[in-house]
Design brief:
The chain has 397 residues and is α+β, with helices and mostly antiparallel strands. It is built from eleven helices and 16 strands. The protein is globular.
């Protein structure tokens, strides 16, 4: 199985400049290949240029421009051309399926942040100085760059990528290793109900608080955005303001990822089966449709309240959490089951009565048939667990 590792690089000033030049030249190659495809198709013959033809031109391009293109790895330049080819393949696939096409666009240097090396040892070398206590990665045209390796890399390194995030540089590895032994069985099953008041509630009565990292950073983000709006376009102050806004967003993103990883790891270690609601998050965050009142204007449609709810849902990061949960469960040999979320918080776990009136408030569940009372999120988690167990037992062996 393949596993991804991401480590912080600590380049010197000269190496940082070389890394920036590497991104710039690969971006230029990407845009040049895109321009060639556009010009060929606009020609009267409607010629289609493919990856093989553009890859065959790399030798001439490197010989004609040794200062900018000839100094970098041939394989990494081929990977950049494959990246463009994949963009066109996705474009034609969306046309065939009737989706919005999204024609490949030219990339500015500020948005071209990744260079891939398809094979370790070809233009790059992970842990290039194994006898040195400091881990380093060797990149052609850059040199041996220090890496902050905070955990060991298991298996054989297959690909190496260099990525820029703000003013930081990262190396991203994909390593292939044998599948791990599954964790020992615990005999415990759990259902989880995700929400906005609490991040999740489990069927055992436990709760995980919603950290609301975006809401906590909202004051600083608002001030940073206001400062950005007052800067003149193209000025040095505006570039600094853009970096400040991006830095705040990256911090919130890292906090959400850290919280999702820790929460998912706790569930995977303690339970054999984890059932959750199959939420359609994109549909839940849709903007309400306008409601014309027949007088040339529109009636209130609750857009302001829905915008606040959408902001809270996005801040919770349910989609990221579920993706991490599924990945960790697969590695640990656990089972994750998605169930239909309808009426999970309206159905009584004691008598099975389902009614809207069973949930008079956000937190309280009170069955009007049998009088059972509990926290509404706990009731939802219990119903999710029962649905998950029923679906697992119904599956063919």
């Amino acid at each position: 199985m393949l596993r991804t590792y991401k480590f912080l690089m600590r380049p010197t000033a000269r190496q940082g400049q070389a890394l920036a030049e590497m991104l710039r030249d690969h971006c230029s190659l990407y845009n040049g290949a895109l321009q060639e495809r556009r010009d060929a198709y606009r020609h009267a013959s409607r010629t289609t240029v493919r990856y093989g033809q553009q890859s065959a031109q790399l030798k001439e391009i490197r010989a004609s421009d040794p200062e900018r293109q000839g100094r970098w790895s041939f394989s990494s330049q081929q990977a950049t051309l494959r990246r463009l080819d994949k963009a066109f393949a996705a474009f034609f696939r969306r046309i065939t399926s009737g989706d919005k096409p999204g024609y490949p666009r030219f990339r500015p240097v500020s948005r071209f942040v990744t260079v891939e090396f398809p094979r370790d040892g070809d233009g790059c070398r992970w842990n290039s100085t194994p006898h040195d206590p400091v881990t380093r990665v060797r990149l052609k045209g850059v040199g041996h760059v220090k890496v902050h390796r905070h955990r060991p890399v298991e298996g054989k390194v297959k690909t190496v990528s260099v990525k820029r995030e703000g003013h930081r540089w990262y190396v991203v590895l994909t390593a292939e290793h044998a599948r791990r032994e599954p964790l020992p069985a615990t005999g415990s099953n759990v259902g989880i109900d995700m929400g906005v008041a609490n991040f999740l509630a489990d069927s055992n009565g436990g709760f995980v608080n919603n950290p609301r990292y975006g809401r906590k950073a909202a004051t600083k983000l608002t001030a940073a955005q206001q400062g950005l709006s007052r800067c003149k376009r193209g000025s040095k102050r505006r570039r600094k303001a853009v970096d400040n806004v991006a830095r705040l967003h990256r911090k919130v993103r890292r906090q959400r990822l850290d919280h999702a990883h820790k929460t998912a790891l706790g569930l995977v270690r303690e339970h054999d089966l984890i059932a959750h609601e199959d939420l359609k998050i994109r549909n839940m965050c849709r903007v309400p449709a306008p409601r014309p009142n027949g007088e040339g204007t529109h009636a209130p449609n609750g857009a302001s309240a829905k915008a606040g709810l959408n902001r809270v849902i996005a801040d919770a990061g349910w989609g990221v959490f579920l993706a991490i949960l599924n990945a960790k469960a697969e590695c640990a040999g656990r089972e994750v089951m998605a169930v239909d979320p309808r009426n999970t918080s309206r159905r009584c776990p004691q008598c099975g009565h389902t009614a809207k009136e069973n949930r008079p408030t956000q937190e309280l569940f009170h069955c009007i048939a049998c009088g059972h009372e509990a926290h509404a999120d706990t009731v939802g988690a219990l119903n999710v667990l029962r649905a998950g167990l029923a679906r697992r037992d119904a599956q063919p062996a």
